[in-house]
Amino acid sequence: MENDLRQPVAQRLRDSGARRGRIASVLRGGESSILNGLGLAAATFLTLILGLGALSLGQIGSVTAVSLEMRDVALPKLLAVNEIEIALDAHALLARRRVQVTDFRQAADIDREMRRAAARFLTGIERLDQLTLGARALEVEQSLEAAWLEYLAALDRVGRLYERGALADAEAAMQDSVRVAEADVRRSVSDLVDVVQAEAAGISAAAEREWQRARVLTLGALLAGLAATLLTMRWVVRRVSRPLLAISAAMRRLNRGEDAAILPVLPGRTDEIGILAEAAAAFRDSVLEARALAADLELQREILAASVRNMPLGLCMLDDLGRVAVSNRALAEIFDLSPADCAPGVAQRDLLDRLAARVDRGRKSAGEFSTGIAATVARGDQMTETWQLMAGGSVSVIIQPTPDGWMMIAEDITERVSHEANIRHLARHDPLTGLPNRRAFSEEIDRAIAEAGAECPAAVLFVDLDRFKNVNDTLGHGIGDALLRQVAARLSWAVRDADTVARFGGDEFAVIQRGCVQPEGARGLGERIIALLFSPFEIEGNSLRIGGSVGVALAPGDGDCVADVLRNADLALYAAKAAGRGQCLFFDPEMNARQRALQKLEHDLRQAVLSDAFVMEYQPLFDIASGDLVGAEALMRWIDPVRGRVSPAEFVPMAEELGLIVPLGARALEMACADAATWPAHLKVAVNLSPVQVHRVGVIEDVRAALAASGLDPRRLEVEITEGVLLDHGPEVLGTLDALHEMGVQIALDDFGTGYSSLGYLRALRLDKVKIDISFVRELENDPSAAAIVRAVCSLCASLDIGVTAEGVETAEQLASVAAAGCIEAQGFYLGRPGAAEIIAGLAGGALQGGRGVA
């Protein structure tokens, strides 16, 4: 390989020697062709300049002669004729004014001006006489002088007539003889102008011809000079500038390290340019040879240095003397060292001590850490470990021997470790709340069952939020998610450190309680959770009340495996919700039977909706004062082949939970409006709307469709809402109620006095009626406070122009009590039981008769 390298070098040296010989030969010959060419070009330029100067001087003389003739002859003639014409116009105008003036002072002024105009006219004639005129011009001038004298004579005759007082003759002469004479003068002036302008035009044409000739000759000379200049420049560029620029560019590229720089090829050139090209080629060969000798070694060194410097892994190599030979920037960055801490030449002991100060060694001292690595290196063993850094982070380290010492490779795996930990966390935790998920909760139950005993069981509590779906439907999922996070925080606050809180999904949460006396511990925790969930939640300006239900199963008593405990806690939760929500119930074996019954009820209800197995019954409503029937409340009944007539109290809660209340509510509106349309026009019908319906904007379309299909007057329809609709009422609910009111539909607040009644509803809502709950009606005779509340509500509603209806009147005494309290209308079994639509139509003509009832 060395011989292969030397052979082209020798060849380049021989070529360089030959070039130097040619350069010396050219210099001895003394050739200077470039100087000769430049001298010839200079002589050519001098000749062109002298020729152009002579030609320009001749043309300037010709143009000057014509211009002088224009200035000295034509222009004075034009000025003299112009002065004659102006003087004539002024004199004629003054003459016409003179014959119209009677004041002697004005006449004297005009005469003076006329004399001046005549003098200007004569001055113009005299100037014209001083110039050389042609025969035609002289003839016209003489005719002009004769016409002028005749014009003045005519004016003189007119003046004498005026002086004698012959005004009529003077005016006639002015119109005839003076105008004729003036016309002759103007004609002569016009002829003189034409002759003078013709002479001036001839001189101008001659000047134009001379100018065109001078311009053509000058342009030709310039073009010839330009062509000669371009030819000279082309010769200089091709023979001198271009080769020099090419040689200069090649030398600059060579100086910048571009070995591929190409010198121009100049065959047969023996002048200065040829000598310069040969010298540049010799210089290039010597430079390339010098670079070629060092290129291979430098390339190998750069490749190794770049690989070590830019590799993402930290690298440190130590020699057999125990000193750092190679290290890179990545190693210093991974262990937060300064470049000097791991620079070449640093002793092995110092490097290990500095690493020990950065690593979490556990119980090892820095000396033990360094000694252990040194012993591994001394034995020639390989070591692979993951080190935790004191500043946080994880580093994977490989230490292995090399032929001349040992090396360490370090990789920062902090992000990978964090990512893996995050994946493990996500696999076991709910991403929204950060609580453990069902999988992690099941593992915790396994451990809780294994640790618990019959005397100290673990409790599993299932928590379900009440009215959470309404929040999502009305305020959006963003508010719902924020609510779930707050619920998770309250649940975490309610338990002890030993307990576990998890989220299963949706609005379902679960708790494991350990180490408590049961069932007292679980009951206390359940009640505490219910109280916390009942407290208002403040989210983005919304005050939300939801509540919750809790079901409890004890392990191992209610199951010895995860599946049994979860199923039984779920059954207890269903029982708590069925018992009216907001309750905490423990599992008992009878819940299995109830659960199967609920599942059967759910299946049958779905089939009933598909087959439209529902009918409407109507409870009559009477005016207390007149005893007249004023309407009826629509009550939907489910006709089941096995159960018979199923009350709404049984199937409506399940319909709401299953989402079937929307089609059922629309069907109830449709049937009630259709039946009421067959009643007398003064009877109205009341239809209950569930909170789920009111929170839907589509309920407006359901009402409008039912009214349109039946033809019922909207004022005969009354919709009843419960206080549950108003717990979290927002702009959407108020907008729905306002829209119904604008249609003419009346709004009634049902079951007033129960739940979370607020007198603020009477002010905030456009209510037409309030219905006193049956629980107050039953206590009117026995509880003075109940009677006082009913009277207060009736008085307040009367002041707000809101009607009051008493529900559940079952005795004559109750009817008398509600009438005395101020109720306007009443309904109940004492007045009439629910019946078919035809029975309501039959009662329309009768008066209220207590205890009559409806079959």
From TrEMBL:
InterPro entries recorded: Biofilm_reg_signaling, EAL_dom, EAL_sf, GGDEF_dom, HAMP_dom, Nucleotide_cyclase, PAS-like_dom_sf, Rev_trsase/Diguanyl_cyclase
Keywords attached to this entry: Membrane, Transmembrane, Transmembrane helix
Domain HAMP: 238-292
Entry-linked SUPFAM superfamilies: EAL domain-like, HAMP domain-like, Nucleotide cyclase, PYP-like sensor domain (PAS domain)
EAL domain ranges (all copies): 598-848
Transmembrane domains' residue ranges: 34-55, 216-237
Domain named GGDEF: residues: 456-589
Protein name: EAL domain-containing protein
Organism: Rhodovulum sulfidophilum
